[in-house]
């Protein structure tokens, strides 16, 4: 794998500004997850003074354990690829059910213009800690157990109040990055956050020991299953742990009666193939629920501030895109901030270009996600065809290659045409599926145990 530069090599020292100090860094980042740490590492390596504030204490639980091959060049550039290899399960592909009772593996080595042919499944607590410690190692002032409470703007100057073990402290950075994830700190502050009008879902998930893994090289696959009310995942982790989740329509989640554990197990039983792999498995973690999965903010930036990753938008995690999109936006966002600090007169133009580029890639994932549970997509994934290298382009999408390859984008457009023609041949089932999806998009489910757990910790 060849390492490439994240952005233009600095040709001048950072422009003069307020003297950096303990409370006046060049850049302050809210959130110490993959997006925040990646941006912090890049900016520190470019010579900027960076402060990173994480409200929880590392290591801390987080969902989102499946990486994509396009994460690998990023991890290499950040200097953590070998550390991640040491904590992860090797992932060669993703598998989906076929029509004969088995499964088809979409191997990353078959991707069009493959940049990497593998990824890892990782325990997120360890993965995030690796990134956090790397940020510290390159000179980032990275602090955990420090919660940003308020952000105000003195003109265009960000002014933050944060509370840590030592009390309340004020920060006046030259630039503010929001990598707060689903907390969407600035999105809520500016009232920019909106539910995705085209797709809504909620999820139940936990960890189990003793779930049957795929044989041979498929042992590290993420396995995706469908059920009548959504889809399910199995993600193999180290020490015989399997992350198991069910993403469901809000309408179905509202039928929940009794405890979450029982409802979760009844939901998993809706798919006989997945249930067979879980015979004799033992649950080793609480069952979590998270609602109103998909959202986006109406804009991602403004004068001297920028949102990254889930702080800007979150899509259904069907294709494990979350960590990759967070880290990709962090790299590109950090390159933009570097240029904006050097050439502030071009900031607005740089921000618009960044948002256009990120939206284009996210929209590729969204198109597939919106249609994945349809009978049309079920048929196409069960019997893949590589005419005109279209299957290779779909594998490239599954690998995360949705930003920079015109050849991949062209073939994904051809796949959309095939999808449309196949849909016409499957009426009225396809029409019924479309109506169901549109109905679900108008509903919501407010049952987020992860957010509730976080709020409880914050008040303790």
TrEMBL record:
Residues 26-330 form the FAD-binding domain. Residues 1-16 have a biased composition (Low complexity). InterPro entries: FAD-bd (IPR002938), FAD/NAD-bd_sf (IPR036188), Flavin-dep_Halogenase_NPB (IPR050816). Gene3D superfamilies: FAD/NAD(P)-binding domain. Residues 1-20 are annotated as: Disordered. GO terms for molecular function: FAD binding. Signal peptide: none annotated. It comes from the Bacteria. This is Hydroxylase. The lineage of its organism: Bacteria, Pseudomonadati, Pseudomonadota, Gammaproteobacteria, Lysobacterales.
